[in-house]
Amino acid sequence: MNNDIERVLYSQDDIKAACQRLGADITRDYAGKKPLFIGVLKGVIFFMTDLLRELDFLADIDFIDVSSYHGGTASTGEITLVHDIDTDISGRDVVVIEDILDSGRTLAYLRERLSERNPKSLKVCTLLDKPEGRVVEAKADYVGFNVPNEFLVGYGLDYVEYYRNLPYVGVLKPEVYAN
Q1: What share of the chain is helix, strand, coil (3-state, %, to 5)?
Q2: Where are the alpha helices (DSSP H) in 30-166?
Q3: Structural domain of residue 125, as residue ranges?
Q4: Which CDD domains would you find in this protein's record (predicted)?
Q5: Which residue is catalytic, options 102, 129, 141, 158?
Q6: pTM for this prediction
Q7: CA-closest candidate to residue 100, choices 138, 63, 62, 70
Q8: If pLDDT is split at 50, 70 and 90, which confidence band does 74 have?
Q9: Are 82 and 25 in contact (CB under 8 A)?
Q10: Is 14 a catalytic residue?
Q11: CB 152 within 8 A of CB 9
């Protein structure tokens, strides 16, 4: 697995520091509140777990599963809802947790779908933000790292469901997916 990585962008220590920074910001912004954190599966599992451990307040969690890559290296542009949240978000402070903000299509889809349910507030936290990948307007409220327009894996990010369990974020060698 490690041999398929061109270079490591963010080490375990880098990611831990980002989780601590983001956790402190979110703790400050939601002091005295009980927000609902919605993780976007599957890539968010490691980031969401580590981030929530850095919060110093009561929080609810739920998960939504959407897909736009369908096994490739770029978004197809078609968003598929695989699993919806179970929680009523009407009147709730909601924070959507993403592993990476790339084309913006998934986030735009989620904002529209969740806004229809009348949350009190709706914010987004992403570990990785890839502004060069945008094809629609999308912005996160909390960002761990801005990343280059390369194919990244590790720490939840995958290529055909592999590499998620790498403890760092790295650039996948093009020859791995250029078949």
Answers
A1: 25, 30, 40
A2: 45-52, 105-115
A3: 12-149
A4: PRTases_typeI
A5: 102
A6: 0.93
A7: 138
A8: low
A9: no
A10: no
A11: yes
Domain count within the chain: 1
Mean of pLDDT values over 4-16: 98
Which CATH number goes with the domain that contains 37? 3.40.50.2020
Stretch 160-174: mean pLDDT, rounded? 96
Residue 70 domain flag: yes
For residue 173, tell me if it sits in a domain: no
Among 125, 121, 131, smallest CA distance to 50 is for 125
Instruction: Determine the average pLDDT of the residues in 92-106.
Output: 96
Asked if 71 and 98 count as a contact pair (C-beta separation under 8 A), the reply is: no
User: pLDDT band at 136, cuts 50/70/90?
Assistant: very high
What pLDDT band is residue 76 in, cutting at 50, 70 and 90? low
Quote the distance between the C-alpha of residue 178 and its chain's center: 25
What H or E segment, with its residue span, contains residue 19?
A: helix 12-29
Residue 71 in this model has a pLDDT that exceeds 80: no
The answer as to whether 60 is a domain residue is: yes
Q: For residue 107, which phi and psi values (nearest 5 degrees)?
A: -65, -40
DSSP per-residue codes, 72-87: SSS--S--EEEE---S
